[in-house]
Here is the input.
Amino acid sequence: RKSLKETLKELIPERKEKFLKLKKNYHNVEIGRITIGSVTTGMRGNKSIFWEGSTVDPNKGITFHGKTIGECQQQLPGDEFGYFHPEAILWYLMTKQIPTSQQVQHLTEELAERGSPKNFPELTSKIIDMLPPDTHPMTQLAIGLASLSRNSKFASNYQRGLISKDHYWEDTLEDSLNLISFLPILTAKIYSKLVNGGKPLGEFSVKNDWTLNICSLLGMSNGVHSSNHCNLNNEQSKDFLSLMRLYTGIHVDHEGGNVSAHATHLVNSALSDPYLSYSSGIMGLAGPLHGLAAQEVVRFLVEMNSRISSPQNTGEIEEYLWNILNSKKVIPGYGHAVLRIPDPRFTTMLKFAQSRTTEFENDENVILMQKLSTVVPDILKEHGKCKNPFPNVDSASGILFHHFGIKDLLFFTVIFGCSRSIGPLTQLVWDRIYGLPIERPKSISLTTMQNLCYQS
Ligand code: CMX
Here is the structure.
């Protein structure tokens, strides 16, 4: 029975040797071209961030260590519906090895023990309690995560000169596992502040897995210690758990260049601890062009449904969309910086809804979400600006949570933030294993660019 840390220890020598060989002997090999366009269009396509866990192919979408979402669903240990456990993909991202059910079970128990209320830092609870209730949940999450830094083993041992560079990864792993474990309670505190005056909505159990604890603490589980404040019946409570498992499983990582992943990786390169690093990532995820789109999509769907006669009325929908585009706003949930196809994560969430027809058939927002996926692409193509007219991940997710009763729009991106911790924190562990240096790209001024262009 080897823990995740023991398993990693065995893998490190061979992987580190491969990395050091490249670094030493091949540092002059070119992997791309940097142009004026790279600087003026948000570094699109620049291959300059080291990232292991996942890759986004414009025409295939996300793969985790080369495996598609479907392959992960088939191969990683999961629930009765085939939705893999976030703990399973955490193990897989860290080790590049498919875990056994027993390994996932042990990691699940380890995370539950680390994240139990007796271990949750009191200061963080107090800080969240003290924040004005109208503080955006993503701001609360970023503040809560930054406050956990006080408990960072990495920061403490580094300050006291107790760790050498070769061992940075061990404290980074320790902090990362604690951070992931603390997320169910932190998230639930933020939610209960929003909807229940700060009073708990459910309980944590060391017997629950990570996702079940999130559901239970949000009061969305039918267990005896959960308030089930949305009055879900048993079937709905099971569906909600599956949705949470599916959602948190597939949002874990989206290679290294997206704002939240990149920010986490960049800040950690200065050896800021994992809590501060991921807090920075969350601040990036809170932007409307990135994770906050999850909230904007729900606002957009509910608002549109209140203005049109039916979610099936194509003419009215088209007119509504053109009004948005003509007022120079974006259609939330559509477009992507890398993808050029419908986001497979969107398709996976859509399949979830389609496999539960009876549950969703009367939900006008879910019907509109599906309808839009057939109408928006043609409109965006005609509009002619956007490189990818298809739905992205945020198109479907929020509205499915909304269906089950999580109606507070501002909260959706917090659930995204729970899931997204897993990929970037995994990368931090490997960054420290490989001993990556502080990131310091070179900036360039308008005059320098002009000189380069006009003299050439
Ligand atoms: N609606 C209207 N216009 C859009 C659009 C959309 N959904 N997506 C892109 N465009 C516009 C851009 O605003 C840009 O216009 P300008 O030239 O006037 O600035 C033009 O099309 C070209 O943009 P692009 O190269 O296709 O897209 P980017 O790589 O610059 O941006 C993204 C990608 C996601 C920020 C953009 O598509 C967008 O704003 N989408 C809506 C917000 C959203 O859903 N974000 C979530 C993305 C997923 C995530 O990261 O979480």
In short: The chain has a mean pLDDT of 95. The first helix runs from residue 4 to 25. The two ends are 63 Å apart (CA to CA).
